[in-house]
Write a structure and sequence with these properties.
Strand content: under 5%
Distance between the termini: 67 Å
Radius of gyration: 20 Å
Structural class: mainly alpha
Number of strands: 0
Shape: elongated
Oligomer: single chain
Largest sheet: none
């Protein structure tokens, strides 16, 4: 029973650490996005922020390709 309690305690602490890391990661991303969006030329950096919001893991670039095609169609 003691081992089980230790395992659950460890998992709970690990979960809290992961949650803290995630929350801080999201805050940092938000701050960085806001700072980047204020750099001149604003329109370029606004689009850079939009591009960075598209998930694109290795060898799974479909979403970013769709985003870029859609973006190109809007400006042509």
């Amino acid at each position: 029973m003691r081992k089980l309690t230790l395992i659950f305690s460890y998992l709970n602490n690990t979960n809290e650490i992961i949650n803290l890391l995630f929350v801080n990661f999201v805050k940092i991303r938000l701050i960085m996005s806001q700072e980047v969006s204020n750099i001149e030329p604003v329109e370029v950096w606004k689009n850079f922020v939009l591009l960075n919001q598209v998930p694109r893991p290795s060898k799974k670039e479909e979403r970013v390709i769709e985003f870029l095609i859609s973006f190109a169609k809007k400006i042509i």
